[in-house]
Amino acid sequence: MNAPTTLLFALTLDQLLDELPTGVHPVVLIGRWFVVGERLAPERAVPRLAWGAGWLTGGMVLGGALASLVPRQPLVQGALASTLLAYRGLDRAVGEVQAALERDDLVEARRLLGWHLVSRPTDDLSKAEISAAAIESLAENLSDSMMAPLWWYLLGGLPGLVVYRVCNTADSMWGYRNERYEYLGKAAARCDDLLNIAPARLTAVLIALAAQVTNGRGAVALRVAMRDQGRTASPNASWPMATMAGALDTTLTKRDHYSLGDGSQTPDVVMLAEARRIVRRAVGLTVGVLFTGNTILKQIKKEQHWKVSIHL
């Protein structure tokens, strides 16, 4: 069984099985590594910067080394890889926000948005702002929580996937521009930027292709992405978010930070549902690519075996 087949198995498990208990979930364990690192970090700027970089490096080396010890049986690899993917959890979290909006329960929608999806304050967000934030998070996390893990498994196997997850978890916990994390999380933020360069752009293409199938706006989505991709602080997050804005003919805005797209439609719960459909189709396209890759690899191996048999 090759890497595409292993990933297809992992995606299947992600859809079928509930999350592992927090006590044994790999991402939770990675998070605890960084909780300990923060407790031990020095207070002064330069030592704190060095400590953050060193603790991150140590976590990546340790995680990659442990992953390399995992038996190479495809079922074992796929089962562990599935715990480091998060599409089902992402869609469920966005779906909960959507359900609250459909009930006009803004208090609950704000709570769920802040609990599951965003770090920004949500207490005074309007219905349109809640919808927009959920759409942004859905698009960005499609890259961070699914496409990037798949990419790094294809390039580096399970160790590559674990190393990516360590860096991404560090960025989600430490990668903030404030007094507490400015120095501690700088290395994590730069590492995450680097590792997501290709996955973020690939995600934008997949969203555009899925949008073309859904509403015929694939080309528009890519044009918006090319135009607006530099408007966020992250060099990567704007790619999937701007593509989604173009796909939905809307403008996605975070107060005092950025505005992506220039569409005529105001974000609402109907648009959020359409964003989820687009993302589901993007995931379906990914499965199709993996299946095709698996078929091609099998054919290549079959031809190589045939040539060897002829020579013998």
Give a description of the structure.
The structure is a single chain. By secondary structure, this protein is mainly alpha-helical. The chain has one domain (3-311). It has helices at residues 3-16, 26-40, 45-68, 74-82, 87-102, 106-117, 127-174, 186-195, 197-215, 218-228, 238-247, 269-311; strands spanning 252-254, 258-260. A two-stranded antiparallel ribbon has the order 1-2. The protein is globular, with a radius of gyration of 20 Å. The model has no long low-confidence stretch (mean pLDDT 94).
Order of helices and strands: HHHHHHHHHHHEEH
Helix fraction by DSSP (H/I, runs of at least 4): over 70%
Report the total helices.
Answer: 12
Number of DSSP strands?
Answer: 2
Strand content: under 5%
Mean pLDDT: 94
Number of domains: 1
Morphology call: globular
The strand order across the widest sheet is: 1-2
Low-pLDDT regions? none
Strand pairing plus helix content: what structural class?
mainly alpha
Tell me which oligomeric state these chains represent: single chain
Return Rg in Å: 20 Å
The description of the largest β-sheet is:
2 strands, antiparallel
Beginning-to-end CA distance, first to last residue: 25 Å
Provide key terms for this protein:
mainly alpha; single chain; 312 residues; 12 helices; 2 strands; two-stranded antiparallel sheet
